[in-house]
Design goal:
about 100 residues; alpha+beta; 3 helices
């Protein structure tokens, strides 16, 4: 398996969280960018969602690169927050429908 991608925590058909996880053997090959780009396009072009967001450990430079390549913007920093089952500093990233429209044009 290469990895997995989720769209979850959907709130009022308007906002949802996204997540991408890849097996280490597939890091750096463009699969994460391709998957996030495709799911972002699907959400904005085929659903009523207006915002997608996610969180990423500040040490995860690869995921930060993927998010920024796909048009997501850094919206904040949580210091020593709980992310999954670990306490760490993490960034919040998001993209809204109008950002996406500008990104693809």
């Amino acid at each position: 398996m290469i990895g997995e991608i989720w769209v979850y925590l959907i709130e009022n058909d308007r906002m949802a969280k996204v997540a991408v996880r890849l097996s280490r053997a597939y890091h750096g090959k463009g699969y994460g960018t391709e998957a996030l780009s495709a799911i972002t396009a699907f959400c904005f072009e085929h659903t009523e969602l207006q915002k997608l967001w996610t969180d990423v450990d500040v040490r995860n430079e690869g995921s930060v690169r993927i998010l920024e390549k796909c048009g997501y913007r850094r919206e904040g920093l949580i210091r020593q927050g709980k992310m999954v089952n670990t306490w760490c500093d993490y960034y919040l990233y998001g993209i809204i429908s109008s950002d996406y429209q500008s990104y693809i044009n």
